[in-house]
Automatic annotation (TrEMBL):
Its EC number is 2.1.2.1. NCBIfam families: PRK00011.1. Belongs to the SHMT family. Pathway: Amino-acid biosynthesis; glycine biosynthesis; glycine from L-serine: step 1/1; One-carbon metabolism; tetrahydrofolate interconversion. This is Serine hydroxymethyltransferase. One of its GO terms (biological process) is methylation.
């Protein structure tokens, strides 16, 4: 493993920062990264994101800029847009949003007025801050109403969602979230949106790569608008896209620019274009299927070791675990696993009696390990490390955590990470 990678200009100009970048490269190479919103981008995406495109300012859209010298920038943006439309089968795509939250804010600007009612999954149930949750600007500027999951199954009760939508008549309904381990029924949400007169927005930030690879049903036939980040399972740079039917194209574009932001980050647009090109290849479909296969295998192994999984398992890349039966708080477990070389995040679980900054659960996922080529045959070992790590956390056994870290590093050395090995 030839790490850290060479950064001669950075090392010469700012050795302190270069050392920190090198340390992060080594950390990502040696640890088992199980945060479901993280991944490894390819060297090609890294290179595209660090080009001279950083030097160019490009307010407006391709062919309609407020700055000259856009001959190449326009082609790059059109390439990203065309690839997004082809990969996801959509009529319109905007690749300019800086990240997922600004993309969702653009949706509000396009379809609602301050004070309007909007509807989304409650944050503690697995939703996202920008789906109208109270501490977010979307919950302060709009009247947010939230649905959740059943306490007995961990699944969305669509009868309750329909009842809430018909009673509240929201302008926008969001489906999707940050801690949903099951397949999203876009058709059911679309039927409720039609009946209640709402615009349906599918936030597929977590599952975009699975949809692109055919491992999760697509919202395209059902949703008016699709919002997504371009990292996570899509394996692109930190950016976002909004996709829609053609009838909503002008409203979406106007909301992004000039509504919310100025010039796009052209280097990110280039990275998105590369990631979408990679997502169109047959190997990416195999990757998406492997992400799901790994997650299901890991869930089965964890269940066999007595872990309580929200909804009883997973259909996608994500597993949400309630550690209450293990008598170890989520934050304690997450920090101990980090010392063991296993990177997760502590997370609330539905109906969690504990506070959000000290919750009962942890959230894990398989995108990163799958990108390294690690397969279902390794999921028993991963589950065993998690089991031993949680037990060590409860017992305060640092020696056990150190032993796990050595075992993790050995497996990581055998499966170098994309973009880091060279």
């Amino acid at each position: 493993m030839t790490l850290p990678l060479p950064h001669p200009a950075l090392a010469a100009a700012d050795p302190e920062l270069a050392a920190l970048v090198g340390a992060e490269e080594l950390l990502q190479a040696e640890t088992l990264r199980l945060i479901p919103s993280e991944n490894y981008v390819s060297r090609a995406v890294l290179e595209a994101s660090g080009t001279v495109l950083q030097n160019k300012y490009s307010e407006g859209y391709a062919g309609r800029r407020y700055y000259e010298g856009q001959q190449n920038i326009d082609q790059i943006e059109r390439l990203a847009v065309d690839r997004a439309k082809a990969v996801f089968g959509v009529e319109h795509a905007n690749v300019q949003p800086y990240s997922g939250s600004p993309a969702n804010l653009a949706v509000y600007l396009a379809f609602a007025e301050p004070g309007d009612t909007v509807m989304g999954m409650a944050l503690p149930m697995g939703g996202h801050l920008t789906h109208g949750w109270g501490v977010s600007a979307t919950g302060k500027w709009f009247r947010g109403v939230q649905y959740g999951v059943r306490q007995d199954t961990g699944l969305i009760d669509f009868d309750q969602v329909r009842e809430l939508a018909l009673a509240e008549r929201p302008k926008i309904i969001f489906c999707g979230g940050t801690a949903l381990p099951r397949t999203i029924d876009f058709a059911a949400f679309a039927e409720i949106a039609r009946e209640s007169g709402a615009v349906l927005v599918a936030d597929i930030a977590h599952i975009a790569g699975l949809i692109a690879g055919g491992a999760h049903p697509s919202p395209v036939p059902h949703a008016d608008v699709i919002s997504t980040t371009t990292h996570k399972t899509l394996r692109g740079p930190r950016g976002a896209m909004l996709m829609s039917r053609e009838e909503h194209a002008k409203a979406i574009d106007k909301a992004v620019f000039p509504g919310l932001q100025g010039g796009p980050h052209n280097q990110t647009t280039a990275g998105i274009a590369v990631a979408l090109h990679e997502a169109a290849q047959p190997a990416f479909a195999e990757y998406a299927r492997s992400v799901v296969a790994n997650a299901r295998a890991l869930a089965d192994e964890l269940l066999a070791r007595g872990f309580d999984l929200v909804s009883g398992g997973t259909d996608n890349h994500l597993i949400l675990m309630d550690l209450t039966p293990k008598e170890v708080p989520g934050k304690v477990a997450a920090k101990a696993l980090d010392r063991a070389g296993i990177v997760v995040n502590y997370n609330t679980v539905p109906y969690d009696p504990r506070k959000p900054f000290d919750p009962s659960g942890i959230r894990i996922g398989t995108p990163s390990l799958t990108s390294r080529g690690i397969g279902t045959e390794h999921m028993a070992a991963v589950a065993d490390w998690i089991d031993r790590g949680v037990r060590a956390a409860g017992a305060g056994d640092e020696q056990a955590l150190t032993a796990i870290r050595a075992e993790v590093a050995e497996l990581m050395a055998a499966y170098p990470a994309p973009g880091l090995s060279g």
